[in-house]
Amino acid sequence: MSASCFKSIPFTLAKPALCLHCHFFHPRHFNSQTKFRKTHYDKLESNDYQILNYLSRNKLQDARKLIDKTTEQNHPHWLVVHFTSLLTKYSKNGFIDESKILFEHMPYKNIVTYNAMLSGLLHNGRLSEAMSLFEMMPERNVVSWTAMICGLADTGRICEARRLFEEMPVRNVVSWNSMVAGLVRNGELKEARQIFDSMPVKNVISWNAMISGYVESCRMGEARVLFDEMEERNVVTWTTMISGYCRAGEVKEGYLFFRNMPEKNIVSWTAMIGGFAWNGFHEEALFLFIEMRGNYDVRPNRETFISLAYACAGMWFPHPGKQLHAQVIVNSWEYDDYDGRLSKSLIHMYSLFGIMDFAHYIFNKNINNCNVQSFNSLIKGYIRIGRLEEAQNLFETVPFRDEISWTSMINAYLSVGEISKASYLFYNMPHRDAVAWTAMISGYVQNELSVEATYLFLEMRAHCVSPLNSTYSILLGAAGATANLDQGKQIHCMLIKTQSGVDLILENSLISMYAKCGVIDDAYIIFSNMLSRDLVSWNSMIMGFSHHGLANEALKVFDLMLESRTHPNSVTFLGVLSACSHVGLVSRGWELFNAMYDVYAIEPSLEHYVCMINLLGRAGKVREAEELVLGLPFKPDHRIWGALLGACGFGEKNVDIAEHAATQLLELDPFNSPAHVVLCNIYAMNGQHAEEHKLRKEMGLKGVRKNPGCSWIVLNGGVHAFLSGEKIHPQAAEMLSLLFKIDYAS
Hints:
The chain is mostly helical. The protein has a domain at 708-746. Helix content is 67%, strand content 2%.
């Protein structure tokens, strides 16, 4: 989906730049505590605080005396309410052992007290103790049963939760909702739907729980049906649907839901901003944030900042990214980064910008909260700006590394031609996955080590690692680049045997490989049998026909492409113009060249002008080619003058143009051997031998030599290359004798 699909839906842009100012209140969370300070519990009465103090220090006798003293001074009803409230406060703040002792020493208890203790145990993960308490309770109510059902479901013991639910003497809507939510959390959607359908009474929470289950499983069709059936929806319902559509990649549908919401809160805004950011619509994410801050009294939260950091990174906006980071600091959100996701997003952002000092500062500040993804972001950041030594140092010092860490370093060394270092890392990887093997194979191909790439592929298969589609695509590209048809066919056969289906990228690779290897008919068979084609498919076929001089076939494919409503690009026109050049279709060539800008709004590049110069030269219209060069909208470079000089070689009456082109070319590139050779040939063709000898003498004085032609043959898996006039191959004499029936050995 293109980001432009959102342009028709207006955004309200109240401010010209990103406004990231916001203020927050952030509560502290206590997971487990063994120490405490009086300032943490200002709401506790002095006696209550003292009881907690005694309990924490195991002074049970002193605690009991204080409890007894409180009991003597107050009414039993007040005591139950007060101590139950106190027990709840203790357990919620992690003092579960103190809560248990208080519970045991309470002079009076009722069912609310028991439920409070039960909830405290469950909240602190003490399921077995909670079950024991549940069994010994003198009486239970619907709250007791529901709490136990939730506790069992939360720990994955869903069968026991279901059995308990069936044993419940009385159920209310909360019980039903808890069972549905528990089943959903444990992935039992079918059973959850059965419970949902059998509910005697449903409320909005019931519907939201079931919709959430479908959304989490990416079953948006079923979620949408339930959404449409609801009579009453709240902001949670709408937000869940927005998140679901964005997670499924249907961002436009999610955005329509967002715009139709009757009311929005910060969670809704953040869900949509995050939906844009995670799906690559970074600009839309930033604009939506501006709209939120400009027109609504909504304050961003931590999740908003995380999404915005990725949006700024995706848009390559360092200044707004720094502004966002400043607001994180101002509002103290960095101190509430309990799971490290905020620091991870900032490290990713700065690493993508290449601002590694900032990225490393955040990393060091949050080193205990950073994960392997943060390490990988830093490593990639250093690699991106060419600081491989620092990337390697970080790689060697991080406490843990994954396949991405290793593969990033391997790719980095391959990109600069450090094959031995890349190989050393590759063979020392604790676990080499298909991505690592493919990276290594691709690196060999990029460094023109096709034979080594093939051997590595065979080694990959020997290690029982299944190649990726991209692995095959890379090898097919290598086979095409070296015109190694045998290798290309072998890979194709392996694809047929091992892959259940060939995707579009592989089909395109096969077309390109067969075309480059000279088997254009096989390329066209694959093209004709494709169920769907993209722009690359059409361009590959057009280029294949063009390179084989099959201009009419290339133009027919171009016409079919237009009929399929596929919009051509600059590569398409290079193919068709080159095809016209091969057979001298001057009128059609001009028609296509003019249509580039006039019809398809494609600005012709230097390569397109070179094609037109070649087309005119091949057709003998050298003067027209010269006029085209002199009328160019930019200053001609050595490629333009070289093309014009080459065009002069196709005729015998263009010495003046050739001399002018050669002069311009040699001013730009004095040691250009093709320019000297072409001009020599033109002089010789026109009988100007004195000028030819003079130019050849200049070539000798300059040390300019013609690059020899090269041919190669693949034999027994090895590539044998031969330069024109070369006789250094160990079997050169034997081959020449075989070719010309002359004994060259002597």
